[in-house]
Structure formats: C-alpha cells, structure tokens
Amino acid sequence: MALDGAFLRHIRRELEENALEARVEKIYQPNKEEMVLLLRTYTDHFKLLISARANSARIHFTRFVPENPPQPPMLCMLMRKRLQGARLTAVEQPGLERVLRLVFDAVNELGDRITLSLYAEIMGRYSNIVFVDEKGKIIDALKRVDAEMTSERLVLPGLSYELPPPQDKLCALEMPAEEAIARIRSSAEGMSLDKAILNSLQGVSPIVAREIAYHTGRGAELRIGQMGEEHGLRLSFFLDRLFTTIRDASGTPHMAVKPDGKPLDFTYFPIEQYGIAAVVRRYESCSELLDAFYDERDRMDRMRVRSQDLLRLLANTSERLTNKINKQKAELEQCAKREELRLYGELISANLYRLEKGQGTAELENFYEEGMPLVRITLDPLLTPNQNAQKYFKEYRKARTAEEKLTEQISQAEEELLYLDSVLEELSHAETERDLSEIREELMGQGYVRVPRGKKQKASASAAPWKFCSSDGFTILVGRNNRQNDKLTMKQANNNDVWFHTKNIPGSHTILVTEGREPTETAIREAACLAAWHSRGRDSSQVPVDYTQVRHVSKPNGAKPGMVIYVNNNTLYVTPNQETVEHLKES
Predict the structure, then answer these.
(1) Phi then psi for 229, rounded to 5 degrees?
(2) Strand partners, 269
(3) Neighbours of 21 (CB within 10 A)
(4) How many angstroms separate the CA atoms of 234 and 256, rounded?
(5) Rounded CA gap, 354 and 314, in Å?
(6) What is d(CA 462, CA 319) in angstroms, rounded to the nearest whole number?
C-alpha cells in the first residue's frame, strides 16, 4: 500500500504542527470501520479521520466528514465518555512502523488527571483502532481479535496492549545507506531491484521501491545480479536522499493520476516512473492528498454497503421482469400464426358439403391465392366439419386477443424495467443517507418495498437538487432522484427554461434556468455535459443528450416517477468530463 511508515511519519509531523494541545470537542463513528475526532485549538479546529478500512486504512485531517448514523455505536459512546474534553499532548510512532499513538491528557470520573492513548494501526486488512488506558490496558477496540482469529496477538478489553510484531527489515532512521545497500545486494540474484528494496527496508511502499529502482536503472528494469559499480553508486545516492527525506519528514506529497482523472498512486516526493502514462500533481499537505485520493472511492463504498438491500431488490425485480418479457415475446411469436387459423376455418366452412365427420385430414383449395394451391388441414375425427371450423375460429380469436394483451403487457413491463434502471442509476449517485431514504420512500410509494406494519412512513425532508453555474452565468439544476426530477421539471422550472436528458439512457433531469434570457451555446453544452455526467453514460464518449423547452415536456397520467414525454427537441453529443463538472460546481 502507498501509505507506508515513511508517509505516516509525514502525517505525524502534520499532526504535531497543527493539533498538539488541541482538545477533543466531539467524537463520531460514521460506520464500523471509521472514527472522526473534532479537535479544537485556541485559533482553529480540525477533523481527524482514522479509518481501519482494509482497502483505505489511514489517519489524516479531512474536510469531508462521512454522514453519521442516528444512533452512535457503543465504542463511540464509550470514547465520548472517557476522551471527550481531553487534550492531545503527543503523537508517537515506533520507528517506521505503520502505527501512530495519540496521547491524551484526560480527567477520570474522580477528577484525577490520567493519560489515555489511541493507537491507529494502519496495516491493510489488519488495520485497527485501539483505545488504551493509563496502565496500558485495552479499554476497547474497533476490531476485537480473539483466540479463534489468531493466537499471536489478542486485542480484547482488559488485556495489555502490545505493538504489532516488527518485521525483519532495516529502519532508515537508524542506519546509513551503505548498510541498506549491503542487505539489498544479499538478495537473490534473479530478484528485481524494487522487490529487493521492498523486502529489505522498513516503512517503504511498492511505489517508493519502484521509484528508487527506476532512477538506479535509468528507467530500465534491473535485477540484483545485473548491478554493477555504477548502479551501486546511483543506488547509494538515491537511498541517501530518500533517508534524509524520511528522517526530516521534509518530503512534498505528490499523486499520480491517470489520463481519465482517476487517482493511481501517491507518495511524499515527485513521481517519475509512469512517464507520460500519468499526470503527477503536487499537494500542499498529506491530508489534502489523502482526501483527494480516497474520498470519492470511500463515499461510493459506504453508499454501496448501505444500499445493498435496495440493490438486491432492484436486481431481483429486474431479472424477473426480463424473464417475463422473454417468455411473453416467445408467446407473441406463436400468435403470429393466427391468420393461418382463420384461413383454415374459412376453407372448412366453404367446403362443408365435401367433408364428413370422422376425417383426420382434408386437402382443400386455397381460393385466396392465385392458382388455388391445395392446403392440408388437420381435423378432429370426433367433431363434425362445422365444429372443426368453429374450433379454428375460436383458436384464431384466442390468438388475436392474446396478441393484444401480450403487446400491452410487454410494453408495460419494458416501461417498468426502464423505471427500475433509472432507480438503479439514482442509487449509483446517492451521496447521503437522506438520498437513500428518498429512494426507499419512492419504492414504497410504487409498492416495491413493504411499509413496516404499525408504522406510518414519514416523508423525509427532500434534499435540494445539485446546483451548478455555467461559465457565462446561467444556473443549472440537476435532480437527485425520480421524485425530485418530477418536482424540478413539472413544478419548479419555468416554461422558458431548457430541459435536458440523455437519449434512451437512464439519468437525471437537468434544467438550464434562463430567467428570461436567451441561453448561450456554451450554457447549453455545459448543461448537456452535466446531464450526461449524471447518467449511465458517464464513462462513455459522445453521449446523446436531448434538450427542449420545459413547455414541451409533459407527464402522462399514471406514469411512474421521473417518466415524461417531450417533443420539439434537439440532440447534442457530448463527452462527460469530471474536471468540467467540478469547475461548474465550484462556480
């Protein structure tokens, strides 16, 4: 992982420079894997996020605080009781281990001053947050570890806290680069240099090891057996520079970003190994970098966990509808032979005088076709000729009625499937618990989610639509969900405003507010870009977006939320771009 022991040393320096002597004003636990401490000094306040999530464990100041549950978990209430009001007096790190100890000066129930500690263990899937008392005993932990999980290191209330077992690696804080090079050279000859560095040095992440190997080999892949004298000198130079940066915690945070804008990797010095395959951005602080790297991904993970029941419901309902549509279409294909049934009935009726009861088949001239070719018709021997004719007419009428009903049912099912797709798209953009509540209420109103017995469902306060501003000053509003789409388009928007929606793609209604002005081409294109971004076509290029005046948009009676029809529209093809969306949002 990129958040190695050396990066953690830089974070420790940030905490010491900004938050020492700060008091714990509030404590939150947004979910079972994260804690947030609100620290306040005489001049400022900070939100300290400690995450024990397996794929994004970290500790840093944050601007993006996750939404809190209505009822705080037990650990959160315990920490509020024991730690709230305490003063942060020290931040410690054993060597370059991925562990930070936050030391607090607190007061117990008797009014005596005591020292409490909060250990943030940033170790991938073994990450944890451990609360320890003045005697070194564990008060509680975010993740309790009992004997059934491991026999090496237990983390349970009442036990003495022990640091995670150290790795057999060299620490840059305690030795010169020459000793580190000797350990690296002792690795197997076929091992790559970056892997040898990773196995030999404590607190070094894969990206740091690759960067040192990249500069040592001048961009070429280098193995231990290929290292010559020049390589040794270059390795010594770059390790010396690295060790100085680590000891002084003097690096500058940099992040490598893919061309599509997605974060790739980060560390505490400039990154050159990716060449033109990535853009490298510099940040003012490690906390700012970690916020940028993890926030969007973590938000999506949190909402995915909270919306699992809705996702499962929508997926199962969509699957049943798809199967139903496929079966009905197969039945509809059989109904296509109904004209043949009518023909058989008419031919039998026209030839009653030639037919007798007991016949199994009859060959009759088809007088509807030129040349009157013979048609072989199967008969029921137990029925009279007239009864056979009536049987074919009955089957014809049945097939005609079935075709009408099946066509109607297939159309309704396809509309319902389109609606469920739009709800799935809403879920993918949900940012808060309020957004999920609105979607859940919408599904209750449509009968997909059962309303709990004995409880009246209270409508949650609707969040405001997303608001943007075009480059030339036009306000652009984007609906968060189907019910808000209806409200935005049918009630809030003016007839002269411009309505946008992706063509045949589930997405949000987007309104360009004109306020009596003539919309510019720039505003129209940027609104179309926002409509494409808030749709299933977000990751596509050349997304078709229809737009028309709101006066030309209407909602049929009985239509599901978010479903409208429109006329007099134009179509614009745009490529969604995150940077453009962020720019319009900031404006």
Answers:
(1) -65, -40
(2) none
(3) 11
(4) 24
(5) 60
(6) 30
Q: Tell the residue number behind the tokens 């061309």, with chain if given.
A: 259
Average pLDDT score over residue span 82-88: 95
The DSSP secondary-structure symbol of 137 reads B
Q: Which residue has the tokens 């020290």?
A: 90
User: Distance of CA 475 to CAs 164, 265, 533, 551, Å?
Assistant: 54, 36, 17, 18
pLDDT at residue 460 greater than cutoff 70: no
- Distance in angstroms (rounded) separating the CA atoms of residues 140 and 156: 7
**Residues whose CB falls within 8 Å of the CB of residue 461, separated by 6 or more in sequence, listed in order:** 434
Distance CA 232, CA 501 (A): 61
Give dist(CA 262, CA 246) in Å, integer.
Answer: 27
Please give the pLDDT value at position 462: 64
Distance CA 523, CA 525 (A): 6
Return the pLDDT at 418. 85
Q: Which two tokens stand for residue 224?
A: 């231990």
One-character DSSP codes across 257-321? E-TTS-EEEEESS---TTGGGSEEEE-SSHHHHHHHHHHHHHHHHHHHHHTHHHHHHHHHHHHHH
From CA 442, how far away is CA 428, in angstroms rounded?
16
Question: How confident is the model over 422-439, as a mean pLDDT?
Answer: 78
- In angstroms, the CA 67 to CA 435 distance is 11
Q: In what order do the strands lie in the sheet with 87-92?
A: 58-61, 45-51, 34-40, 23-31, 87-92, 99-107, 113-121, 128-132, 138-141
DSSP β-bridge partners for residue 116: 104
**Side chain identity at 500, as an amino acid letter?**
F
Task: Give the model's confidence band at 299: pLDDT under 50 very low, under 70 low, under 90 confident, else very high.
Answer: low
Q: What is the pLDDT of residues 548-563, one digit of tens each?
A: 999 999 998 888 888 8
Q: Is 33 helix (H, G, I), strand (E, B) or coil?
A: coil
Q: Is 41 exposed, middle or buried (0-12, 13-18, 19+ CB in 10 A)?
A: middle
14-33: average pLDDT: 93
pLDDT, the chain, mean: 88
Q: Tokens representing 408?
A: 């109607």
Contact criterion met (CB below 8 Å) for 212 and 246: no
Q: What is the spatial distance between Cα 399 and Cα 388, in angstroms, rounded to a whole number?
A: 17
Under DSSP, the state recorded for 505 is S
- Tell me the per-residue pLDDT of 488-502, one tens digit each, with 9 for 90 and over: 999 999 999 999 999
Residue type, 486: D
Distance of alpha carbon 566 from alpha carbon 546, whole angstroms: 9
Q: Which residue has the tokens 């100085």?
A: 244
pLDDT of 167 > 60? The answer is yes
Its pTM stands at 0.64
